[in-house]
Design goal:
By secondary structure, the protein is of the alpha/beta class. The protein is built from 16 helices and eleven strands. The strands form two sheets. Strands 1-9-8-7-6-5-2-3-4 form a nine-stranded mixed β-sheet, sandwiched between helices. It has a two-stranded antiparallel ribbon with strand order 10-11. Strand 5, helix 4 and strand 6 form a beta-alpha-beta unit. Bound molecules: nicotinamide-adenine-dinucleotide (NAD) and magnesium ion. Magnesium ion binds next to helix 9.
């Protein structure tokens, strides 16, 4: 089965022509959605807490900023872009009491709807645009004339206009330039969590660290191990991004390609497949979501401990020193969750 893709021509911008869109939160996704919509000509208001440090940033960027409840009252479309763990509290206190018929409540990830933490009243439409990339990329690719592909879902079309408005939103942030794909909240939530755990974040980070440790433990120089296992990964991923595994294999040496075929499946073996299935099952049955919500609600002791342990990993120490000598990479250092010595990369400081 081939999925139907929707492009610019499938999305009528007039569905948002006389509508106001409230972007709640101004982080990774929030700043990119707000600025892309604004530059496309959509009326945007950013909803933030009174003391939020993002207020100044959004105002300086030329956006209207309001308290969350006022933004909800002013809006026809409300996109919730605060962290998934914070959404329920913000929704209960400042969004739900002000909802009215005809409004469209949107999400960029299905977590809170799918796991039943937010249950919007039947009077509003509910939908999703989930860009398949981080916010700074959504912004910079749009500015370069392109778009980050996205998933969209129509969870509830009470007004009969939800689908058109969601597609118009996808067009306004640039995503229909690349193509948007229809999904459900369940499919998006489960595949998104699985993708980030198995490959994008978890699998890749663990693979890189283990390969680095294996070389260093065997007596090789850590700097060399860094270049082999982390630095070069970008070059390989760029080839995959442009032409898939075939282009990567076309570009590397025959020796590298042969090693890929004979050793890759030994490293990522059937044991890994079985673990991936376990991880997927725990995502599907809510085990992971419950664990993460409990961890977040109880002060994040485990999360902070794990974060600190990896922050001090030798590959991070060696990598920071080497990247500092390669200013053309636009190196950044992250300390206590903040980007410190960022060069002027779009999105490096947001
Ligand atoms: P984020 O952590 O970058 O930023 C959230 C922003 O919300 C903060 O900058 C702040 O302005 C505000 N905020 C933070 N805590 C708050 C609180 N307690 N109350 C009110 N406001 C608060 O979040 P993000 O990564 O942009 O994620 C937003 C949504 O987008 C999530 O649903 C996420 O799953 C989804 N998403 C993220 C990405 C990504 O790459 N970051 C990609 C696709 C979808
Ligand atoms: Mg994702």
């Amino acid at each position: 089965m081939t999925a139907r893709m929707y492009y610019d021509n499938d999305a009528d911008p007039s569905a948002l022509a006389d509508q106001t869109v409230a972007i709640i939160g101004y982080g990774s996704q929030g700043h990119a959605h707000a600025l892309n919509l604004h530059e496309t000509g959509v009326d945007v208001v950013v909803g933030l807490a009174p003391g939020s440090r993002s207020r100044a940033l959004a105002s300086e960027a030329g956006l209207r900023v309001m308290d969350v409840s006022d933004a909800v009252k002013a809006a026809d479309v409300i996109m919730i872009l605060v962290p998934d763990t914070a959404q329920k509290a913000v929704y209960d206190a400042e969004i739900a009491p002000h909802l009215r018929p005809g409004q469209l409540l949107m999400f960029a990830h299905g977590f809170n709807i799918h796991f039943g933490r937010i249950d919007p009243p039947g009077i509003v439409d509910v939908g999703m645009i989930a860009p398949k990339g981080p916010g700074h990329l959504l912004r910079s690719v749009y500015q370069a004339g392109g778009g980050v592909p996205a998933l969209f879902a129509v969870h509830r079309d009470q007004s009969g206009t939800a689908r058109a408005r969601i597609l118009a939103y996808g067009r306004a942030i640039g995503s229909t330039r690349a193509g948007v794909l229809e999904t459900t909240f369940a499919e998006e939530t489960e595949t998104d969590l699985f993708g980030e755990q198995s490959v994008l974040c978890g699998g890749t980070a663990a693979l890189v660290k283990m390969a680095f440790e294996t070389l260093v433990d065997a007596g090789y120089q850590p700097e060399l191990a860094y270049f082999e296992t982390m630095h070069e990964l970008k070059l390989i991923v760029d080839l995959m991004y442009r032409g898939g595994l075939n282009f990567m294999r076309f570009s590397v040496s025959d020796t590298a390609e042969y090693g890929d075929y004979v050793s890759g499946p030994r490293i990522i073996d059937e044991h890994v497949r079985s673990t991936m299935r376990d991880v997927l099952k725990e995502i599907q049955d809510g085990t992971f979501a419950n664990r993460w919500i409990a961890e977040s609600d109880s002060g994040r002791a485990e999360f902070n401990r794990l974060r600190q342990a990896d922050r001090d990993h030798p590959i991070e120490q060696v990598g920071a020193r080497l990247r500092a000598q390669m200013p053309f990479l636009n190196p950044v250092e992250v300390q206590a969750g903040q980007v410190q010595a960022a060069a002027s990369t779009p999105g490096a400081s947001r």
